[in-house]
Amino acid sequence: MLAKRIIPCLDIKDGQTVKGTNFVNLRHAGDPVELARLYSDQGADELVFLDITASHEGRKTFTTLVRRIAANISIPFTVGGGIYELADVERLLEAGADKISINSAAIRRPQLVEEIAGHFGSQVCVLAVDAKQTSAGWRCCLNGGRVETDKDLYQWTYEAQERGAGEVLFTSMDHDGVKTGYANEALARLSDELSIPVIASGGAGKMGHFRDAFLQGKVDAALAASVFHFGEIHIPELKSYLCACGIPMRQV
User: Fold this and answer.
1) For residues 26, 113, 78 and 43, what is the CA-based torsion angle, rounded to 10 degrees?
2) Does the annotation count 152 as an active-site position?
3) Staple partner for 117: which of 122, 161, 184, 246, CB 3.0–4.6 Å?
4) 192: annotated active-site residue
5) What is the pTM of this model?
6) Among 45, 130, 212, 220, the one annotated catalytic
7) How far is it, in rounded angstroms, from Cα 164 to Cα 78?
């Protein structure tokens, strides 16, 4: 069995790491370069950088900060936020990103997934999905969760896979920052229906939540932010715990 991955996430606003609850009430969580270096040294498998207001503000991702972070880590690095065209992808890859994450731009223009996969390879293209449960089922949202769409979570992720996305990063807005566990039922369905890796996001509060995401949610990777940023969970201890639960992990 392939080793499962632990992925810290840096949500960036105005050049600083922030973290909120249900996508609102943001608070400062530390210097992104220092945090990135710490997680790389601690044995994180990958790092995700999300410029969370770039799409809403209609601007590009902070390339300079991406370059600084990339220079301080030795693990795969995914960057998202404010990516609208192939030139944006090229700029971020040149700055040191290994993969790019697209969300709002892909919903607005699904052909972007095909363009990125065709030009750079599927392994570069991560489809990020912010979704929440409604009376009509799981619905995808735009602009950092600010705008609800009529796109169904399962239909959209399958379409993106068929267009060439290499991974799906699913954040449950209902679970984000609440620390009561991941949306394992939805994750398990995604994992069953898709043939590409699924990354869980939203809800980690204790080490058992990561275990449940891997065993119940059947995911390939689990992403978290605040539990790492504020020192509630340390990556080496988390990996040892998960190994003891029978979940394969890459050890430092």
Assistant:
1) 110
2) no
3) 122
4) no
5) 0.92
6) 130
7) 17
211 touches 243 (CB < 8 A): no
DSSP for the chain reads: -PPBEEEEEEEEETTEEEEEETTEEEEEEE-HHHHHHHHHHHT-S-EEEEETTHHHHT----HHHHHHHHTT--S-EEEESS--SHHHHHHHHHHT-SEEEESHHHHH-THHHHHHHHHH-GGGEEEEEEEEEETTEEEEEETTTTEEEEEEHHHHHHHHHHHT--EEEEEETTTTTT-S---HHHHHHHHHH-SS-EEEES---SHHHHHHHHHTS--SEEEESHHHHTTSS-HHHHHHHHHHTT--B---
Higher-scoring residue by pLDDT: 16, 201: 201
Q: Please give the domain boundaries of the chain with CATH numbers for all domains.
A: 5-244 (3.20.20.70)
Catalytic residue among 11, 88, 212, 220: 11
Determine the pLDDT at residue 18. 74
